[in-house]
Amino acid sequence: MSATPDSSAHPAQPAPGDAEHTSSPAPADAPLRILQMLALAVEHTDDAVMITRPDGVIEYVNPGFERITGYPADQAIGRTPGFLRSGAPSPGFYGQLWQTIRLGRSFRAVFTNRRRNGDIYFEEKTISPIRGRDGDIRHFVATGKDVTERMAATRHLEHKAHYDSLTGLPNRSLLHDRLHQAIQRAQRKGRLVAVQFVDLDRFKIINDTLGHATGDRVLIEAARRLRDCLRATDTVARLGGDEFVLIQEDLEHPDMAEQVARKVLDTFSSHFPIGIHDLFVNVSIGVALYPGDGADPESLLMRADLAMYQAKEAGRNSFRFFEAALDAGSMRSLTLESAIGEALERREFSLVYQPLIDTRSQAPLAVEALLRWHSPRHGSIPPDHFIPLLEENGRIGDVARWALREALRQVRTLQEAGHPRLRLAFNLSGRQFRDPGLVQDIRAALDDTGFDPRLLDLELTEHTLTDNPEAAAAALRALRQLGVRLSLDDFGTGYSSIALLAHFPLHSLKIDRSFIQHMERDQQAAIIVRSSAGLARNLGLEVIAEGVENLAQLALLQELGCHLIQGQVLARPLAADELGRALAPA
Ligand SMILES: Nc1nc2c(ncn2[C@@H]2O[C@H](COP(=O)(O)OP(=O)(O)OP(=O)(O)O)[C@@H](O)[C@H]2O)c(=O)[nH]1
């Protein structure tokens, strides 16, 4: 049924008799026409219109109201609007409503109401008082719009902004809010908060071997297991990838965090039945505690993350609590990581050269270029610390290209200064070796510096060659066509050293320093040095010994027929100008 503009059925409806609503009685029928027009507008609007008496009893509802609420006018009129309520409004909501409209002001809000069929809907409603000429409130008029769809869309967006779509867990941004609130509560109550950083072990293998979809199912199951390890009031969030964070609130003692960490490890010790697969997925956990390890979400998360890395390094499938000592070292590597990003542009790298001495003539026959980094903030950083950082941040290629050109240029200068046959030994990293532009880069660098390719010795490790022997053989052939020499570095440390000698077109091999250093006392090391040297000589390769520290080793290596010796005992690494001066008498 629909409401009609019948003033007897709807006493609150604006009708000609309500002269008090008009400011001045107008002659003839003009006001009547206006009133009829207003009545029609109210009848035809999509919005819900409801007019009540000052005590809230409904006197009129329009067809829009009937459509939105599902209540016909005769079931609404005579009642107060309470029948539309959906349940618990926020505390004080209706008190505020009445206070505002009784003071004669309009009240505007989104109401959560219930339709006649039981569905919840959201109504954006304005309630305004209507006063008589004497200034007294005669009616209230409420106009409302059904904004359920809009609210659902907004909620959907809000959900998307705060929850991970794969697992349904809170995402990074909601985690931050929750952690922030947990810290504030803990501060008031004097309790602890534990932040546990959980990372699946070797998850990449699952993706790589069984596919991303299987990986996703593992992540969903992992999320479920983590959720089951905590109380409902605690938070489990997914940071992204295979990283999750647990927030435990209201702790009295760190032991309670340890219990949960153990429970998580235990939960992951049973297999994951995913489709036809039975997978074992372990996790590594790092724990940081408020207030001891940090007072804000960022530092707690960072420290839990550092502790998690410790757990990974200790062999995975374990947990670690954050320790301050761990922070000092790890913070340093984090700040080093950011410092190294710009080091090339800031000209913080340099090269030093370690001479390789001919065992017969005792003259320096070659120099090996070694990269050094001096950071203005951190001082001199050893290569075994910064090379991995360069590899991780992908800058190794740029730095290596710079280093090769710089070394060719500097050694060319030495050659021109009276050492025309001085060779340059240069280490090629695995990544550089796999770079498809390698041969072209080297050719261009040789051309640009006018360096004789026969005097360039490129050193490769066994590992580089065995990673992909086919591709390595092709790359070595291309390099040989440039006319450069090729050396096998760290000889003896891999499993396939001898096979490599037979298969790759090499010129020299460098016996690894670990054998040289132990050969005086360790019979096995001595045998390896002796047989490597013999083997190389028989294959027509030049033999180089590196890491020679004392004269006894030197004598022994001479006796074994090593051609070149490299080590502190003969010459330490020198900068190009120092080297120039050291070589001057030649
Ligand atoms: N299936 C799936 N894989 C993802 C998703 N997000 C990230 N990954 C993959 O998760 C893997 C994360 O691997 P890492 O944590 O770096 O390494 P890991 O193999 O777990 O090894 P460790 O952490 O060192 O034990 C990568 O292979 C990502 O491609 C995702 O939403 N679904």
Automatic annotation (TrEMBL):
PAS domain location: 34-80
Residue ranges occupied by any PAC domain in the UniProt entry: 105-159
A matching Pfam family: GGDEF
Signal sequence bounds: none
Residue ranges occupied by any GGDEF domain in the UniProt entry: 191-324
Family matches, as InterPro entries: Biofilm_reg_signaling, EAL_dom, EAL_sf, GGDEF_dom, Nucleotide_cyclase, PAC, PAS, PAS-assoc_C
Any GO MF annotation of the entry: catalytic activity
Residues covered by region (Disordered): 1-27
Residue ranges occupied by any EAL domain in the UniProt entry: 333-586
PROSITE patterns linked to this entry: EAL, GGDEF, PAC, PAS
Protein name: EAL domain-containing protein
